[in-house]
Amino acid sequence: AAMTTHFGGVASSTLSRDRAVLTGIDDHGSWALVHATGALRANRDFVIKALAKDGNSLLYAADSLKLDKEVVLTAVGQNGHALRHASEHLRADREFALEAVKRHSNAMLFVAAELREDKDFVLEAVVAGCSLEYVWAPLRTWCIKRENLLETFRETADRGDVAGLSQAIKDAEAHGLPESDMAVARPALAKLVKYNRADSLWEVLRPGAGGSSLAPVVLVKGSWLVDLSGRGGRLPRRQDLPPEAVWDGEELQRDADEYNLEARARRPHKVVAVSHCWLRREHPDPHGEQLKLISDIIQRRLRSLGSGVDLALFLDYCSLFQEPRSSEEAAAFEESLKCVSAWYAHEKTEKWLLTRPPATCSLPGDLAAAEADRQDVPVAPYAARGWTHFERSIGELLACEGRTRSLLVDLGRTSEGEPLPEWAELQWRCSARQEPPRVPARLCEELATKKFAEPTDLATLHELYRVTFHEVAASTKFLVFCDLDWGDDEAPHLAAAVRHFRLLQGIELEGNHFGDASASELFDAFAGREHLRRVVLRANRLQDTAAEQICARLYECRSLEVLDLSFNLIGNRGAGCFISMFEKGQHPALKELHLNSNDVGTGMKERLREAATASRGARLELRL
Q1: Is residue 471 part of a domain?
Q2: Which residues contact residue 305 at a Cβ distance below 8 angstroms, ignoring those fewer than 6 apart?
Q3: How confident is the model over 271-292, as pLDDT tens digits?
Q4: What is the pTM of this model?
Q5: Are 67 and 163 in the same domain?
Q6: Cis peptide before 268 (omega within 30 of 0)
Q7: Distance (Å, whole) CA 391 – CA 90
Q8: In terms of residue numbers, what domain contains 166?
Q9: Bridge-partner residues for 378, per DSSP?
């Protein structure tokens, strides 16, 4: 009678007891299981079927099944609240409790109290998908702050905000976020600062970098090289460097960090990357000729830096392990190849290019394996070599701040046979004639025409350049290419490169020779830079056609706030283009327009001023 009454009139005589109970669960819920026999409530297969219909049926299952992980997870999968009916042992089992929460977020309400209040467990559960609404309130606040920090990581990394990302990482450390949460943020920050903060340079000077037991790279003391040259010596392999020749990376880092924080007069030690030709395969400088030049330059540079300052030089023969190499040295050498481009691309390093090697070179007796090796053989020019072309091209990516501060010094531009001037004059005279940044495809074409001692180096350098170019482009906000004599021939190459600099906020091209043909190329590239706020084309050769092309594309430069076209050759027709632009409102963000010292007539200047005022009022500073 009870079966008939409770199960909606289904006579027990027409159904087996187990099917009647399952039907009752369908119709009336989990309490129907109370009518099952003790044997049925202890029957694992039957209970699993019951739990698949209503997880809360676990309340009426035999106690032995409340210890069964599969049984309880079946119940939780149907209803997270069912976990409250599991044994205390299972609810306190960390691994099991996490699996239960993965099945149903609200199971978090019924895990053991010590787990609900365990930050590591809760974080693991949230990462696995647990909804915050079921998290213990104090930890819910912590988790919300965590999610906000993770969002800040994403936003600041996407817009290349180094300061913001650095602060977010510090906040995350203070908030107690695990390293797994910063697994993306830390590498993102490292990429953003790889070529403009010195920390990335010190990293590869440490043993253990990249998994190698030896430091991938060492830097040589400039003062030691001066002494070596004075003694008539020649460059040793890295393996043969005496300890006193090698910089301690920790010392260099401490010195740089102290200078950044303290108001001291002494400058930090300066890092220099030297690009030079190997005169012979057996030794890059058998007679010490290039070492003598390097020594002379070092002495002048040290005098310019003042007392107590030394140089830290990257010279491949001394800085990288040379053949023959042990297995450990070979591993360190492979690691060093991954970072070799950083020494030339980094904006904190000076690049010295020895572009005028001797025309011929012989080997001294102690290096000559045969009498024929003592004979002079022709030396391939600097410009004809693959490695030196690669090093120079890498160095040109971020090297220029104008001739007086150029970090790219072409020592081949010294007058042969004449005494070297002091550093300031030498830097001015030897400021390299540099090219616009090369996109990888262009460099690959150029490298294919160069000489390599090892043919496989072509593919190696192409890949190294591709990676470096895109890393530099992805992290650079400002480009300064002033007084380089660039004109219409260089504009297409510069424009092609600029398209890759997605975070670009400002570009300064003052003192070049860009004319009308350049304007279209450059502003086609600028139009796609959503963060670009400042363009300086002061003192070029832009005329009316350039002004027309600029005005036609300015509406696509939606973030551009400052446009400096002063000291060009723009006349009344060009001014008329700007008047039309103002009248049409095609200047969404412009705050400053510099047109002073062009060829605009007095009356046209007044019309231009009136149009700008009518359009932008006090929001625009117009310099005429």
Answers
A1: no
A2: 267, 270
A3: 999 999 999 999 999 999 999 9
A4: 0.80
A5: no
A6: no
A7: 63
A8: 139-193
A9: 360
